[in-house]
Amino acid sequence: MKIHHIAIICSDYEVSKKFYTDVLGLHIIREVYREERQSYKLDLAIGDHYVIELFSFPDPPNRPSRPEACGLRHLAFSVDNVNEKRNELIEKGLVCEEIRIDEFTGKEFFFTQDPDQLPLEFYEM
């Protein structure tokens, strides 16, 4: 039917929480601390659409992400204007790749990454 949510385990909860809320502008639905797991769980939304569960765990193992490791390749966000979003993120201190053109759709997109180097794509709709 549709994707319900995406779960992300971060290495530094406060840094990632700030990134996903202050930099990307996702809204907090719920934040809980699970004492038995020494873990935070932060539910985030774009508008009123629940999209990301952000978890923290003590000493999570690193996951290879480049080049082309198996597993999740990137998260892609739809935006109205790629140029505006790229400029906004650069102003907030992110390093963003140059804008590319999707050879199949002709749409513009670019990549940046979250604090744990998870690639994030912004795709113009």
From TrEMBL:
Gene3D superfamilies: 2,3-Dihydroxybiphenyl 1,2-Dioxygenase, domain 1 (3.10.180.10). This is Glyoxylase I family protein. Residues 2-125 form the VOC domain. Keywords: Metal-binding. InterPro entries: Fosfomycin_Res_Enzymes (IPR051332), Glyas_Bleomycin-R_OHBP_Dase (IPR029068), Glyas_Fos-R_dOase_dom (IPR004360), VOC_core (IPR037523), YwkD-like_dom (IPR037478). NCBIfam families: PRK11478.1. GO terms for molecular function: metal ion binding. It comes from Chryseobacterium joostei.
